[in-house]
């Protein structure tokens, strides 16, 4: 049985109480398919990119508690669960396995745009490296085109940014003491004004809030088509039997 994912220019969900554990993610979040595709694994456990349909549900993405063996009490029932075994095959130009939502709509620095992605994520289980990326702004160019990575790193929330495509990653600590199963609320606002992009990030967990602003010159990214992502990018390439598990109870992307 295949599972669904949900996201769109409308709320990923309106309230946890409105989620139905018997629905696929598309049933709970019917607008996601309009704006995202899913990167997961096929029947041979090889990476694939597929459209989000109302029958899409499998062992890598599913509604929380749709069956007793797949129920995580630290996340709301009906939330979308992204499950990624460590050491599975990676997509091109990557070393790590992922089950992620990839926005269909691209944007480029040098143009005018106003895009906001917000979500509520739960890190339910970590791999041996204790590192999971749960949201990104990624590029279509090989060789270091990850403009932003939001990662849970052994209890800390860290923003990784690159001033220009291919540059070394700069890491900024946002929060510490974020335990497994604790809700992480975040907002990423990207605004392009021609010569540059301003990125505003807000992350909260356990009653604590962190806000950061980053600036990117268009000259370093103007030839790269960028897009938002959300889900579970397991930062372990070791076939050690560990698994990274992330749940989303809300996710929204808006283009202005």
UniProtKB/TrEMBL annotation:
An example Gene Ontology molecular-function term: lyase activity
Leader peptide range in chain numbering: 1-18
Domain Alginate lyase: 67-254
Key words, A-Z: Lyase, Signal
Pfam hit, one: Alginate_lyase2
Gene3D superfamilies: 2.60.120.200
Name by which UniProt lists this protein: Polysaccharide lyase family 7 protein
The species this protein was found in: Pseudomonas yamanorum
